[in-house]
């Protein structure tokens, strides 16, 4: 299933794109935005794998938006202006669809996106020794990892749905080498966080999206030697 988010500054264009997407099998429009800044503020917390971006928009254009998110989402550009084609493909996006958009052309773009999403899912998993035996875990489902309080040689993983799994006899150095470097960061000597699980980031503290109870979220203290690495990740 392709879960897509639409960004276009024109409401009529959004409505038309939604209409086309509804006619294509295995495509779901999760959300639509007409403001690039609102899109960038929320996209990290939206469960989607493809973004359809208009290029020509006031303020921040689609090319600039793509540079900020292209590592985490597959991108399809839409535009009425052919002069953007070369620059669009320099970003290694899925496709570049000219307006007015025809459903057949959009279907081709989604087919390309589907192949790329399936390939990335095949690669982004690791088989680990865990408390429930040999277990395949998709890295994009990992929210948080910490040193086990029972045995420091083990590591506790919390998945996005709250499931807990124990990795057996694995140190942080080896663990970080196995995880996608662009998606995870060590916060201190005992904790690793998925960047997608970060809600607020300050000099000394991270507030995550992981609930502790009904009214609060997990907070992590940033170790001094890890501050520079975390800052670099957020500057990219």
How does this model look, in words?
The chain is of the alpha/beta class. It has two domains: 2-122, Rossmann fold (3-Layer(aba) Sandwich); 125-235, OB fold (Dihydrolipoamide Acetyltransferase, E2P), CATH 2.40.50.1020. Helices cover 30% and strands 34% of the residues. Strands 2-1-3-4-5 form a five-stranded parallel sheet, with helices on both faces. It has a five-stranded antiparallel sheet with strand order 10-9-8-12-11. α3 links the parallel β3 (50-54) and β4 (74-79).
What's this, in brief?
Keywords: DNA-binding, Phosphoprotein. This protein is an alpha/beta fold.
Quick tags:
236 residues; alpha/beta; Rossmann fold; OB fold (Dihydrolipoamide Acetyltransferase, E2P); 5-stranded antiparallel beta sheet; 7 helices; elongated; DNA-binding; Sig_transdc_resp-reg_receiver; transcription cis-regulatory region binding; phosphorelay response regulator activity
Topology at a glance:
Layout lengths: L1 E6 L3 H12 L4 E7 L2 H7 L7 E5 L7 H8 L4 E6 L5 H6 L4 E4 L4 H21 L1 E6 L2 E6 L3 E6 L7 E5 L4 E4 L4 H7 L5 E5 L2 E4 L3 E4 L3 E7 L5 E5 L5 H9 L1
CATH architecture of the largest domain: 3-Layer(aba) Sandwich
Structural class: alpha/beta
CATH C-level class of the largest domain = Alpha Beta
Shape descriptor reads elongated
């Amino acid at each position: 299933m392709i879960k897509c988010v639409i960004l276009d500054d024109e409401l009529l264009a959004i409505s038309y794109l939604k209409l086309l997407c509804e006619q294509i099998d295995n495509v779901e429009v999760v959300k639509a935005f007409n403001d690039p800044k609102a899109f960038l503020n929320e996209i990290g917390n939206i469960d989607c794998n493809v973004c359809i971006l208009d290029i020509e928009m006031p303020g921040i254009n689609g090319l600039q938006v793509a540079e900020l998110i292209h590592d985490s989402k597959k991108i399809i550009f839409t535009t009425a202006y052919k002069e953007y084609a070369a620059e669009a493909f320099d970003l290694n996006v899925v496709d570049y669809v000219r307006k007015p958009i025809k459903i057949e052309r959009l279907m081709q773009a989604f087919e390309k996106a589907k192949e790329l999403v399936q390939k990335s899912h095949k690669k982004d998993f690791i088989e680990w020794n865990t408390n429930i035996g040999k277990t395949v875990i998709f890295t994009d489902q990992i929210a948080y990892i910490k040193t086990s309080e029972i045995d420091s040689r083990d590591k506790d993983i919390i998945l996005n749905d709250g499931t807990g799994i124990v990795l057996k006899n694995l140190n942080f150095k080896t663990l970080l080498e196995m995880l996608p470097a662009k998606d995870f960061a060590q916060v201190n000597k005992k904790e690793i966080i998925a960047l997608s699980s970060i809600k607020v980031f300050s000099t000394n503290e991270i507030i995550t999206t992981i609930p502790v109870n009904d009214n609060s979220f997990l907070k992590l203290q940033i170790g001094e030697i890890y501050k520079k690495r975390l800052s670099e990740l957020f500057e990219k």
